[in-house]
């Protein structure tokens, strides 16, 4: 609205809307004839309809004086220029800023849980000699996946998670020919890999089952690890270990070279299977013997009975090697 303060008759005034406010104030020092004015209704001209930028969205459809329209861009594009425009008063109606543009920029930082990354100039070909980096910053506990439609000369995607700071993913591309790429990014809540417990007859080193973390499996004395010793939690929406869980078994015989150890019957502490023929060979350094101490010995009482055979009946054996044979007939 135009505002005028004067003691003389002003020039012709035009309101900028359908309301005009007139305020007359006097004091006790002066009196005068006053004023006489006439007004009439005139049509207000509007600002021209603003141009909607390519790949952009306009909000607002009133173009009178002091009306405001705003602009935003479709996913993947960034606004270049002013997001709000106001229709200005005057003999010629005009907007206070030119219409903005929506462009696919070369790099940037994104904080949205889902968004689109476009090559510069998309859907057209991008220029040559570009070096663009996009960083996607997500809250702690979230990761990102990307679905792409691309034909590019080079694009590198790296991701890292410090577990104390937001996960970020960096898309880095450099171009030397005229092509394009399109990435749709979607955030998802990070899940841990499957809990490996209970792990019978052994223990696990590291209790962090998040993506990128590794856990180590160890067996108690007398058991042998079957499977992979170290497992790593893989990245992705569905978190999985890179190998199946191993297990610790009491095997049916093997060669023993440790100076001290434990030997169990097969599948101990469960019952041993039928039809077993197992041999353990204990070998210690020259000049040493082997001392055998049975803390438990239980076999079937019916005939034919399983038997455990040692190469000698002595508990202390002054030999370098001892062979233990378990047979069930």
Automatic annotation (TrEMBL):
Pfam families: CUB, Sushi. Signal peptide: none annotated. InterPro entries: CUB_dom, SEZ6_CSMD_C4BPB_Regulators, Sperma_CUB_dom_sf, Sushi/SCR/CCP_sf, Sushi_SCR_CCP_dom. PROSITE patterns: CUB, SUSHI. Residues 106-142, 252-329 form the CUB domain. Residues 45-104, 191-250 form the Sushi domain. Transmembrane segments: none annotated. Keywords: Disulfide bond, Repeat, Sushi. PANTHER family: CUB AND SUSHI DOMAIN-CONTAINING PROTEIN 1, PROTEIN CBR-CLEC-78. This is CUB and Sushi multiple domains 1. It comes from Sinocyclocheilus grahami (Dianchi golden-line fish). The gene is LOC107566061.
